[in-house]
C-alpha cells in the first residue's frame, strides 16, 4: 500500500499488508487487531521473551522472561516505581533540575547533539528509579551506549536481547564494565542503606548480584535507550514542522502529551516483539481462520500495527494531533505494547520527554544539517544520531 508518509524512520518496513503472513515455521502479524489479541493472550501464548541463553536460564528469571503469576507478582512490586503518582511526586523536581543543567549546557555552548542530551537525561532519570546512582566513575551513559551499539542494516531476528550481548568476549567486557562501575557500587550502597528504588527491592527478595544485573539491563538500559530515541524523533518532527512545533509549545500539558503519543504511534521505537505459541491457536482475521500450531514463533510488527487504518483511521502514516480513535485504541496504539508485558515505564517516558522538549523547543533553537539514521538489530529499533541543535539570536 502506497501512501503519503510523515515518518522520519524507515528501513523499508512500512508495508501494511498482509495483516497475517506465514514465514516457514514462523508467523508475522502486522494488523492491529490480531497483534493486540496475541499480546493479551496469556493461556496459549508465552508472553515472556524466549531465553535459550545457558547463563540466563540458570538465574532467577527476569521480569522480561516471566509469565503468569510469577510475572504478575514481580511486575506489580516493581511497577510502583514507575506509577504516575510516584513519577509526579518523587521525580518531578529531579527531572526539572536535570533539564535545567542540560539547557544551561546548550546555552553555554550554543550548539549540541540532541541524541547526547537525550541520553544524559534518560540515563539520569532511569538511574534514579532503578537505583544506579553510586557509580565509581562518570560516564554511565557512554558505557550503556556501548552495550547496545547500533547497526545500519538488519541482520536477522533474535528473541533474546541478552543472548547477543553475551555472545562474544567484547560483549562480556562491556557488561563487566557496567557491572563493576555502576551496578556493584549501587548494590553495596543499598545493602548499607536501602532506598525506595528497584535495586533495594530486589535485595529484599534475595536476588543475587547477577540477577540484579539482568534486571538493571532490562529495566534500566532498554528504558534509557528507547527514551533517548523518542526524545530525538519527537524533536525532529517539530523542528522541521513549524506549525506542529508552535502547537506543541503553546498547548497545555494534556494536549502536548496527546501530540507526543501521536508521534510515538507513528514512530514506535521498538519495531517488533516475538512470542511463542504454547498451545494450538486459531486467529480469525479478515474473514479467514489462521491455524497456528503449538511451538510456533510469532513476530508482532508493532510499527505496522500502530499504523493500521482499521484501528487508527485515515492517513495512518501522517501526524494528526487529536486523531479520532475508536474506543479501546490508545493514542499511541501499540507503541508501548499491550497486555501483561506492556511497557511499565510508559508514563515516565512521556513525562520526562514532555518536560524536556517543551522547554527546549521554546528556545530559539534550530536543526543544523541532516540527522543520521541507523537500525539497532539488538533492540529492533531505530537510532538517530547527529541531530545537531544550534541556538540562534531570533525566535524559534
From TrEMBL:
The keyword Metal-binding applies. It holds the Pfam family p450. Gene3D superfamilies: Cytochrome P450. Keywords: Heme, Iron, Metal-binding, Monooxygenase, Oxidoreductase. The keyword Transcription regulation does not apply. PROSITE patterns: CYTOCHROME_P450. It comes from the Bacteria. Belongs to the cytochrome P450 family. This is Cytochrome P450. It comes from Ammonicoccus fulvus.
Amino acid at each position: 500500500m502506497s501512501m503519503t508518509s510523515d515518518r522520519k524512520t524507515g528501513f523499508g518496513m512500512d508495508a501494511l499488508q498482509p495483516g497475517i503472513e506465514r514465514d516457514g515455521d514462523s508467523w508475522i502479524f502486522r494488523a492491529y487487531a490480531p497483534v493486540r489479541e496475541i499480546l493479551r493472550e496469556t493461556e496459549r501464548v508465552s508472553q515472556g521473551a524466549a531465553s535459550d541463553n545457558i547463563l540466563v536460564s540458570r538465574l532467577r528469571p527476569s521480569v522480561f522472561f516471566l509469565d503468569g503469576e510469577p510475572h504478575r507478582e514481580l511486575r506489580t512490586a516493581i511497577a510502583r516505581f514507575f506509577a504516575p503518582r510516584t513519577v509526579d511526586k518523587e521525580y518531578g523536581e529531579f527531572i526539572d533540575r536535570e533539564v535545567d543543567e542540560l539547557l544551561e549546557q546548550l546555552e553555554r555552548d550554543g550548539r549540541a547533539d540532541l541524541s547526547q542530551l537525550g541520553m544524559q537525561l534518560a540515563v539520569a532519570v532511569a538511574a534514579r528509579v532503578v537505583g544506579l546512582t553510586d557509580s565509581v566513575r562518570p560516564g554511565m551513559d557512554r558505557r550503556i551506549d556501548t552495550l547496545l551499539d547500533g547497526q545500519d542494516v538488519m541482520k536477522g531476528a533474535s528473541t533474546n536481547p541478552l543472548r547477543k550481548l553475551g555472545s562474544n568476549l567484547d560483549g562480556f567486557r562491556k557488561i563487566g564494565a557496567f557491572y563493576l562501575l555502576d551496578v556493584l557500587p549501587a548494590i553495596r550502597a543499598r545493602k548499607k542503606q536501602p532506598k525506595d528504588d528497584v535495586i533495594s527491592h530486589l535485595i529484599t527478595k534475595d536476588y543475587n548480584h547477577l540477577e540484579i544485573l539482568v534486571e538493571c539491563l532490562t529495566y534500566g538500559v532498554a528504558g534509557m535507550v528507547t527514551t533517548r530515541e523518542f526524545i530525538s524523533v519527537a524533536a525532529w518532527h517539530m523542528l522541521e514542522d513549524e506549525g506542529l512545533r508552535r502547537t506543541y509549545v503553546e498547548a497545555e500539558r494534556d494536549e502536548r502529551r496527546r501530540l507526543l503519543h501521536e508521534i510515538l504511534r507513528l514512530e514506535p521505537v521498538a519495531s517488533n516483539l516475538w512470542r511463542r505459541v504454547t498451545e494450538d491457536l486459531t486467529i480469525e482475521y479478515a474473514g479467514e481462520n489462521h491455524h497456528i500450531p503449538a511451538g510456533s514463533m510469532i513476530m508482532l510488527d508493532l510499527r505496522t500495527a500502530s499504523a493500521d487504518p482499521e484501528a487508527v483511521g485515515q492517513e495512518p502514516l501522517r501526524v494528526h494531533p487529536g486523531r479520532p480513535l475508536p474506543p479501546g485504541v490508545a493514542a499511541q496504539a501499540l507503541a508501548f505494547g499491550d497486555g501483561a508485558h506492556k511497557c511499565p515505564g510508559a508514563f515516565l517516558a512521556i513525562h520526562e520527554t514532555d518536560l524536556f522538549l517543551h522547554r527546549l523547543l521554546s528556545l530559539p533553537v534550530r536543526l543544523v544539517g541532516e540527522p543520521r539514521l541507523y537500525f539497532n538489530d539488538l533492540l529492533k529499533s531505530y537510532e538517530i544520531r547527529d541531530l545537531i541543535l544550534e541556538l540562534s539570536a531570533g525566535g524559534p
